[in-house]
Amino acid sequence: MDGRHVIPVPAANDGAPAVVVEVRQNGSRPLDVRLVGCEGENPYVTTIKQRSIGDLKKKGNNEDWEIILSHFLLQKQPEKGHAGILDGVRMDYSPKGNNIQITIWQDVQGIKMTLGDFELHREPEEEIDPIDWAYTSAQAHNLALQEMAQLKARAEGEQGTIDKLNAQLQDFIRTKNESETAMLQQFMELLNEKKRKIRDQSRLLAGAKVDKAAASAVQSTRDETKHRKPVASRASKRKAPVKKQEKKESDSDQMEIDEAKDEERNDESGPEAATPERSTDGETEDEGDAVNEPGCLRSSQSKDTTDPAPSKAASAPRAVPPKRELPFSRPSTRNKPSEQKPPLPQDDEDEETDDEEL
Predict the structure, then answer these.
(1) Among 123-137, 162-176, 211-225, 274-288, which is the least confidently predicted range?
(2) CA pair distance 148, 155, nearest whole angstrom
(3) Residues 290 and 279 sit within 8 Å (Cβ to Cβ)
(4) From which residue to which does any coiled coil extend (predicted)?
(5) Cβ–Cβ contacts within 10 Å for residue 108, how many?
(6) For residue range 222-247, what is the model confidence (pLDDT) as tens digits?
(7) What is the pTM of this model?
(8) What is 294-334 written as a DSSP string?
């Protein structure tokens, strides 16, 4: 409409005629407008600049005031986030001398709160074309009707979609209820069938002959398993082989000590056998017995190792001899009896006896 709007402004006092105001664009900005109003007799004119709309404001902030002026003068609807600004806001006029004053106010719980106002000054020389104003108003009315028809058609289309979705939802709900009912029916039939089978089995068991002895045995077994308490686990005996091994080691150490003593005795008796003194057959037999004594001790000790209990009892009262500096090391004592040659002194003695007899 070439930036023209014709708006009605009601009177603040009831019974007074309304004022028709033409709003025409008069600048580069939206609220740079020129207002021409008429109550039916005299024209009234004023000019508003957007940069000075803050001077017309009484309360509120500049942004809200700009939205309110755009709504009433330019017939522009606010955005979604600012729709609540127009709640209870009204615009009317009142005569003020030769001029008229347009006031924008808000009804807050029955209290009239003025947001802003501006005056239209009386200009008798201003020409007014009522036909042009009527044409502009009719054109705006037709445009509004077209927009309303489009919105109505769109709303009807959306309503049809909503109806279809509601029908589908109802169908889904009905199908769900039917499925649940069928499932419950099947469950009831299955449960009844199970109950019938249980009753049949109970009748069969009631009519069957059961051996009383077998029944009492089963009952006693159940009672035992029911009232049985866990028994504490036995102590582990895995350390017994270790004690036996230690006992064997102590026996072997004792045997080595005895062998060392026997070897010392043999060493002490050896020089006596090497002397050129005359010896008898009895002495040679005693020496032979003395030479063979380690073997006897070894055999007796081997018997003691096979029977650990007597050896332990026999070795307990014996005291350990004092430490001696032996001319040989311990590992060699085990093999030394095999290296000795005790029969040599016996041969010498036998030769001496033979010489004496000759």
Answers:
(1) 274-288
(2) 10
(3) no
(4) 148-204
(5) 10
(6) 777 765 555 565 555 555 554 444 54
(7) 0.46
(8) HHHHHHHHHHHHHSHHHHHHHHSSPPPPPP---SS-HHHHT
pLDDT at 184 over 90: yes
For CA atoms 199, 203, 204, 206, give the dihedral sign: positive
User: How far are the Cα atoms of 180, 186, 204 from residue 191, in angstroms, in the given order?
Assistant: 16, 8, 20
Q: What sign does the dihedral 293-294-295-301 (CA atoms) show? A: positive
Angstrom CA distances, 103 to 68, 93, 357, stand at: 12, 6, 174
Sign, CA torsion 221/222/227/230 = positive
Second CATH level (architecture) for the domain 4-128: Beta Complex (2.170)
Question: 39-88, pLDDT tens digit by residue?
Answer: 888 899 999 998 888 888 888 888 888 899 998 888 888 887 777 888 88
Of the chain, the end-to-end C-alpha distance in Å amounts to: 175
Amino acid (1-letter code) at residue 132: D
How many angstroms separate the CA atoms of 7 and 27, rounded? 19
From 74, 71, 50, select the one nearest 62 (Cα to Cα): 50
| Rounded-to-integer distance, Cα 228 and Cα 145, Å | 95
Question: For residue 5, what are the β-bridge partners?
Answer: 23
Q: For residue 236, give the DSSP letter.
A: P
